[in-house]
Amino acid sequence: MTEAVQSEKHSFQAEVSRLLDIVAHSLYSERRVFLRELVSNAADACDRLRYEALQAPALLGDDPDPAIVLAPDAKARTLSISDNGIGMSREELVGNLGTIARSGTAAFVKGLGEAAKEGAPSLIGQFGVGFYAAFMVAARVEVVSRRAGSDEAWRWTSDGRGEFTVEPAARAARGTDIVLHLKEDAAEFAEEETLRAIVRDYADHIAVPVRLAGAKAGEALNQASALWTRPRGEISEQQYAEFYRHVGHGFDEPWASIHWRAEGRIEYTGLLFLPSDAPFDLYSPERRHQVRLYVRRVFITDKAEELLPRWLRFVAGVVDSADLPLNVSREMLQNNPVVRLMRQGLVGKVMGELEKRAREDAEGYARFWKAFGPVLKEGIVHDPEQRQRLLALARFRSTAVDGWTSLAEYVGRMKEGQEAIHYVTGESPDALRRLPQLEGFLKRGVEVLLLSDPIDDFWLGEVEGFDGRKLRSVTRGGDDLARIKVPDAPAEEAPAAGEHDALLALLKLTLADEVKDVRLSQRLEDSAVCLVADDRDMDLHLERLLRQHRQLGAGAKRILEINPRHALVRAMARAAQGEGGGERVAEAARLLVDQARLAAGDPVPDLAAFARRLEGAIARMLG
Ligand code: ADP
Ligand code: MG
Prior knowledge:
Layout (H helix, E strand, L loop, with lengths): L2 H4 L1 E4 L2 H12 L7 H23 L12 E6 L4 E6 L6 H9 L4 H9 L8 H7 L11 E9 L6 E6 L4 E7 L5 E8 L9 H11 L7 E3 L24 H12 L5 E9 L5 E8 L14 E6 L2 E4 L14 E6 L8 H4 L3 H24 L1 H21 L4 H7 L3 E2 L8 H6 L8 E5 L3 H5 L5 H5 L4 E4 L4 H5 L4 E2 L2 E5 L27 H10 L4 E6 L8 E4 L7 H9 L9 E5 L4 H11 L4 H19 L6 H15 L2
Parallel strand pairs: 2-8, 11-13, 15-16, 15-18, 19-21
Antiparallel strand pairs: 1-6, 2-3, 3-7, 4-5, 4-7, 5-6, 9-10, 10-13, 11-12, 14-16, 17-18, 20-21
Helix pairs in contact: 2-5, 10-11, 11-12, 17-19, 17-20, 19-20
């Protein structure tokens, strides 16, 4: 069989083609980052070889020291990046370089419309394009690779336009060469000086030595020591940032870098990063934290989920343990006491850093909270141990401030006579502000927290209170408004005792099938009626959420509150007392209940009847 016969054409996965389209159209000014991506992959390949060699030392052969070699050729306008790492088999070349392995990324790219091309530079800033960054500078890319332990080598070739070819090749030993046939306007990347500068800027943190072809073994362009083992004082912001991008696959700046050595019951080094921007796949079910586990400098896995809880899935970094055995397996990590202690240590460090930031940089912390708050709130639901600390870290929209407030600040603003922390949950702070149930609170200057993350109703179900105060929904149960004085308000003429008795009795009778109870309201000011949930029932918004997700059939009956000071209600009260007004009041009551349902976002059970009553009312209005 000749080589030509064995050469196979493949199409890229549709999402890869789209990604390549974005890369090709990008006017990304920082295209030098292609080298960071390729060197990052080469270093990962060396790490994975070392891990496999723990079980099979023969894989190292007579070339045990990891190395990355850059071979520029200015005349031919090519640059090759070679490593002696794990290499790729034919199947791996096709799979790894022809499809997007991370399903979160694939889904994200799929979701980008054609318009994505215009947004290319900023998009590239949002997620790593990884290997495909090579096509920012190369018109054609060749990858020659030989998997460790195999004697076959394969060549993968593509111009990044829809297809790639795979054919047999020759390579003396294991490892991978990435050969870039540079675009005309990218000739600078075949120059040694440029490469030196790029490695210094973008790859100094890489623990594997990066050399120019022909250089002696000692002459690395980078420091070639594991970044986390260096003292903090010797690491620049830029080096931390590049390391963050290497492990976190992010393109943003790390918002916080936490670097420490733990000594005591267990010994390890931690280097954790908190991102500035939410990664696009933050809410994808496949999203995992990006913390890599090393044991005494040897990479073990980037899939040790046990290291952090899911509510810290945006964290990236490295933990290097001195206690775990080198041959630790995935299974051994589960229920491992060392891992459990490290997890406690990592969570504690992240929490401590957040508390410090919240104290010292309120504005920066608010930005962080905006991006990651909903994820941290998952911790309030699932992690009772961290619950109170997370509540103290939580920030909220509220009726009293323009920006964000903490619960402690809220408590500091509580009114005389106010006992609980009041909140309301719903779709958006603006819509919440306008709910009739808030009127009495606003009138009295009682602050209400406006919660609009879908998770809010769930953590509220787990939390008793904060700082000794109960958290209470303004759309559920009674309220303590009567105890709170209205500032500068003229003493209100109280409705005459018994004025509404007949009305209440009539409403309860008429609406017996529709509502659980009818009562006079404190919380209404301008509106005539509203619905609230009984103390023992599910809150209004939670029920609506569950119904939308078909987790719930019919909901509980609501309580109808009427505003005793409202002109309409007073007119109804008079009619209810008079002779023969009963049927008219009953009709009005049915109309009002439906209107209250609409205002609360609840469905109206009989829309046709509602429309008929409304028409009748309009007709009477027009005489
Ligand atoms: P990522 O590094 O985020 O996984 P990339 O697009 O950078 O994504 O690389 C895709 C995959 O291709 C890698 O996960 C790896 O399996 C494989 N790969 C890339 N470069 C190399 C290399 N030099 N040696 C071995 N495998 C590689
Ligand atoms: Mg990569």
